[in-house]
Amino acid sequence: MSSPISSWRLDAANTTVCVLTGKHVPELHYFGPALGAEITAEELRQLSDDSVLHASLDEPTALSLCPQASLGHAGSPGLAAHRNGKRFAHRLQHVHTEHKANSLSFQLADASAGIEMHLTLKLDELTSILTINTAVVNRGEDDLTVDWLASATLPLPEDHTELLSQHGRWGGEFSEYRRALHPGLTDISNRHGRTSHEHAPWVMTGPQGFGDQHGEVLCSHIAWSGNASLRIERMNDGHASVQLGVLPLPGELILAPGERFEAPPVIAARGTGINAISHQLHTHVRQHILPPWTRTPRPIHSNSWEAVYFDHSTEKLFGLIDACAELGAERFVLDDGWFGRRRNDTAGLGDWFVDPEVYPDGLQPVVDRVRQHGMQFGLWFEPEMVNPDSALYEQHPEWVLRLDGIDTPLARSQLVLDLSIPEVRRYLFDCITRLVHEYAIDYIKWDMNRDLVLAGNGEQARALAQPPALYQLLEQIRASCPTLEIESCSSGGARVDMGILKHTGRVWTSDNIDPIERAQIQAGFLRIYPPEIMGAHVGHKAAHLTGRETSLHTRAIMALQGQYGFEIDARRLDATERSALAHYTAMYRKHREWLSRSVYYRLDGQHDSLVASMQVADDARIALLTVVAVTAHPHSRPGRIKLAGLDATVHYRVALESLNRAEIAVFSRQLPHWLNDVDRATDTGPLISGELLMKTGLPLPVLPPQSALLVSCHAR
């Protein structure tokens, strides 16, 4: 006889979540488009997949929110735990449900194994984002070793046969890869100790060929800044799932009697097309994750790194500060090289004291020069690191992550501090807050330039303890310095996730600011995270990382997609370059308020030669279109690009906002009408229906490789 089944549901504007209880562990029966209110538990029970094939277990193996091997689940379990090799399996039973307006909480227990589990599902009524939290409690009398705990296990629809994920390297972050979801396990495991360049902490699944505007898509993200595993699995019974969780090192997650472990949350979104997922996630990040100061107008940055590197002197910095202020910078950031023995990247990390040889009067003269121009002052730190050639390491070698008996490989001549040691956090807190208060620092660029290798305290692993210790330190600093803004930088984009974004409000997207490389990098970033927190700077003509030379217009157009700034030696610009930059800087000031609430659309291009996207105001009254030609177009005619997000009932004034019309015109015998039919009296473009722009598309001029367009659409 079938066990009594209860149905629980959560509803948002366009999404319904249904969970069934009554077997062992609750099952996520439905997560999809909104269902009618009249759907009953009996109807859902009738649709439970209870088929059993011969040569199988007598009872069907349910794909629950925590799949259990003890019930015959042969795939990745939701929990793998034991007591010194004993009690290697468990049988969790549903104990209690708490149902609130937008959340469901389930208590599960296995009394014989001494394990208690708590699962909470919250459906955001505005965005339809589903957040899943999982915790396990040791109710036994001896230690419980947890080898694996999934933060969430989400069943996949049968037609989800394709997987999209992001991977990369330093200077090449957020590259997208597609693969078929074949039988067996696809395991994307990150063992770098930080979020990493190599593996983004999210996956998307959908029907074969799902794209920006089509296909029912599911995205799952783990809000965690350390080792993690993303497991996508198709079983021989046809069930498929995505499972996300932290990845502990051997013996790292051992719970004492009564101890509780809270797994990092999983944030899941579903919708039609990837753009719908991006819209939900951007809104969720803005409303529920980012610090409040990210809702204020984002200042224009100028960073000293690629202008002077380690060659600090007040004379050079004064000239740079003056030139940056003339360009319109609103925040000047003094990068690496101001402290300790730091004349190059082999020494000084950990000694967070102003170098008196370089700055005999401290940083005050530099700060004063910055303030004279009405700019904010920012300072670079790499707090989690230490060089062996430093006073801190000489005094406290026991503070570094290590395994006794094995030499830790160096990276950039540095080691990693063990943030789980309270004295380490106290030292860093004191050093940083002392400088913030002394110089009234507005902003910190918080860098982290290496992976964690042999991440232990000498004997036992400590990688799992680093992210929460970092979060705690950041919370303490922000409590002491409530107006301070902090950027997450990790050799560029190696620590970008919704865990770190609760404590930081800007991301240095990549150390690579070659605009052609950035076209793909930024498009990948914007899949998940909103544009106003994306650090995007205008670099030198020859990119420092690639050597590629590009037009200033291309560099500025790409920088305008995010939080705009300069990574350039402004002292060396000629009058033409300064005038052009002044135009783009004024554009950023003009649009940044609505851009911080904008809806992002990646546009399906006909060819890989173009990367195109739009940022549309939340009322659809204004939009900016960015088109970048990363390679030569394969055809003699560039064709049209269909816009998105506009109001079909409104006419828009379409205008070229970039100053490169003359540069582009030489590559065409004739330009499209909308580029020629400009009202010379007002210097504005023609009026075109939003419906036509979206259904017919905007004809493009011939774009030579490495060029870009910036086009505005203003409702009339």
Structure description:
A hairpin with a 2-residue loop joins strand 10 (162-169) and strand 11 (172-180). The model has no long low-confidence stretch (mean pLDDT 94). Helix 4 runs parallel beside helix 5 and helix 7 packs parallel to helix 8. The chain has 716 residues and is α+β, with helices and mostly antiparallel strands. The longest helix is centred in the C-terminal third of the chain and has 21 residues, at 575-595. The protein folds into three domains: 66-289, alpha-galactosidase from lactobacil brevis (Beta-galactosidase, Chain A, domain 5, Distorted Sandwich); 301-508, Aldolase class I (TIM Barrel); 601-715, Golgi alpha-mannosidase II (Immunoglobulin-like). The protein has 14 helices and 39 strands. It starts with 5 loop residues before the first strand and ends with a strand. It is globular. Strands 5, 6, 7, 8, 10, 11, 13, 14, 18 and 19 form a ten-stranded antiparallel beta sheet that branches. It has an eight-stranded parallel barrel with strand order 20-21-22-26-28-29-30-31, surrounded by four helices. 20% of the residues lie in helices and 30% in strands.
